[in-house]
Amino acid sequence: MTVKVSSQVLAGVTVVALEGEINSTTSGGLQSQLLPFIGHGSTVLIDLTGISYVSSAGLRTLLIVHRHAQQLDAEITLVGLSEEVSFVMSATGFLDFFRIADDLDTELERTGR
Asked: What sequence ranges are listed for the domain STAS (predicted)?
């Protein structure tokens, strides 16, 4: 099982869409796919609309991405969290690490690009 990763640049913002489950089997590969999208001072929207489940290994991967972004003064926003994913991230305090947006269009407007 893998997480499908697709990306596009919209109005100067990198949008990375994920689809599948982020678990112990998929998290390592996902981490290696996400980190190259984060550059110095970049803005990256990670679209989780297609993610149905995040395990503790998945949370760890997202935390590593967050820390990498901090080192590069990049902005990461998580978009489209399902109710289950939002609950898990809230219960573990992970929502405090990220900017969260309900939908991609609204967040692209916010970036003003």
From this structure: 3-111
- Provide CATH code, domain 4-111: 3.30.750.24
Q: Where are the domains of the chain?
A: 4-111
- On whether the CB atoms of residues 100 and 93 are closer than 8 A, the answer is no
The residue among 5, 2, 92 whose CA lies nearest residue 47 is 5
Structure tokens at 87: 């609950």
Taking the CA of residue 26 as centre, how many other CA atoms within 13 Å lie in the half-sphere pointing to its CB? 19
pTM over 0.70: yes
76 contacts 38 by C-beta, under 8 angstroms = yes
Which pair of structure tokens corresponds to residue 86? Answer: 């939002």
Taking the CA atoms of 63, 48, 41 and 111 in sequence, report the sign of the dihedral they define.
negative
